[in-house]
Amino acid sequence: MTAVPVMDKVNFRSASRISAIGVSQILRISARAQAMKREGIPVIVLGAGEPDFDTPDHVKKAACDAVHAGDTKYTALDGTPELKQAIREKFRRENGIDYATDEITVATGGKQILFNAMMATLNDGDEVIIPTPAWTSYRDIVAIGGGSAICVSCSAKNGFKLGARQLADAITSKTQWVILNSPSNPSGAAYSEDEYRTLIEVLLRHPHVNLLVDDIYEHIVYDDFRFVTPVGLEPQLKERTLTVNGVSKAYAMTGWRIGYAGGSRELIKAMAVVQSQSTSCPSSVSQAAAGAALSGPQGFLAERTLSFRRRRDLVVAELNAIPGVRCRMPEGAFYAFSSCQGLIGKMTPGGQRIDSDSDLCDYLLEHAHVAVVPGVAFGLSPFFRISYATSEAELREALRRITVACARLHS
User: Fold this and answer.
1) What pLDDT does residue 378 have?
2) To the nearest 10°, the Cα dihedral for 369, 375, 378, 379?
3) Which stretches make up the Aminotransferase class I/classII large domain (predicted)?
4) Residue span of the structural domain in which 216 resides
5) CA angle at residue 187 from 376 to 144, to 5 degrees?
6) CA 173, CA 74: separation in Å to the nearest integer?
7) Residues 106 and 233 both lie in one domain
8) In this structure, are 285 and 304 located in the same domain?
9) I want to staple 44 with a disulfide (CB 3.0 to 4.6 A). Which of 67, 214, 341, 398 is the partner?
10) Helices (H), 234-346
11) Whether residues 366 and 398 fall in one domain
């Protein structure tokens, strides 16, 4: 009998497209925070990008009704006719954009919308302009799609927003997409109509460039800020723009995993091809719930935004009271993005030097037992992001701990 060779090691080799993606700072901090919690350490986690509210009752009822009605089978590949119609009406009612149902796609979360778009359009060497600070997944999804992320740094002085000159200077013959997120994760910055129009003027001069706008925080804006989206301002951009949205943030439905978008028929069709060989259709039950969210009562949105605004005001005031920390007032979303430049170079009580925002966040986690995310994760340092999508009581305790920990740093 021939002996079977013993394999003492699995020879695994990851694809080059995966090696281009770094280890997520957010996941690293989250994993450490959860491990500390399991050890009984009372860590307060301010890194979550999801509301602490529950999904509205009428939305949950729509999901239950769908289950009881037997709507638990495969649906149309990129969205049921009913949900697409609800999305169409939403775009017309709230954004002044008239998409036909075959110009609308539904996927398993907004992230899959972005993934489908990049996979459907990018070739090796194509460039995607991303103003930073920006959500970490933009760069990684571009890399997986074979493109090159061109990150344009946007300072706090300019409100963390891309200027027309910056955009014009970043565009090349290889530019395929510009990604804009308003209000933004991580900064909460939002583009006004005038600010968008200056960018639109640049895009109109470069017809080979497409625009992806991520409007997922559309309903979470403060101080009478008027939300606008580019295609609603300039219909000429409609065929070149993918307007992305979803139900996760405004309707507290992160776990339901429904994102949607409007764009040109050709793009939507190409994205459907990608989806057909990945997840296929989104959950039938989640689609029923999303339709109820978009078509049902909307009054609770203002109430929840008011709650977020109170938390925002608390967080920004307390952070700005810490020597060495400066926090700009965000126009929307539920994040505070603070400079910690004044703390760089300080020493911890244990004799360790704070050389970066990552060092500061590690220090706050280990000694204040508060988990926040370093700005380097979003492409801009030295900053850190706090999510205030948690209770006011928990925020107050976290801010107290951060204040005490920062006061213990010394030169």
Assistant:
1) 97
2) -150
3) 42-402
4) 71-295
5) 55
6) 42
7) yes
8) no
9) 398
10) 265-276, 284-295, 299-320
11) yes
Co-location of 147 and 91 in the same domain: yes
**Distance, CA of 289 to chain centre:** 21
- Domain contains 120: yes
CATH number for the domain spanning 141: value is 3.40.640.10
Element (H, E) at 109: none
Q: Note the pLDDT tens digit of each residue in 149-160.
A: 999 999 999 999
- Spatial contact of 147 and 126, defined as CB atoms under 8 Å apart: yes
Dihedral sign for Cα 54, 57, 62, 65, please.
positive
Q: pTM of the prediction?
A: 0.95
CA 186/CA 375 separation, integer angstroms: 9
One domain, residues 288 and 322: no
**Structure token digits, residue 126:** 């194509």
Of 294, 248, 271, 289, the closest CA to residue 102 belongs to 271
CA dist list (Å): 217 to 190, 204, 206, 264: 10, 26, 28, 23
Cα distance between the two ends of the chain: 73
Instruction: Give the number of domains in the chain.
Output: 2
Residues 352 and 385 in one domain: yes
Query: What is the rounded distance in angstroms from the CA atom of residue 88 to the CA atom of residue 95?
Result: 10
At 226-240, the pLDDT tens digits run 999 999 999 999 999
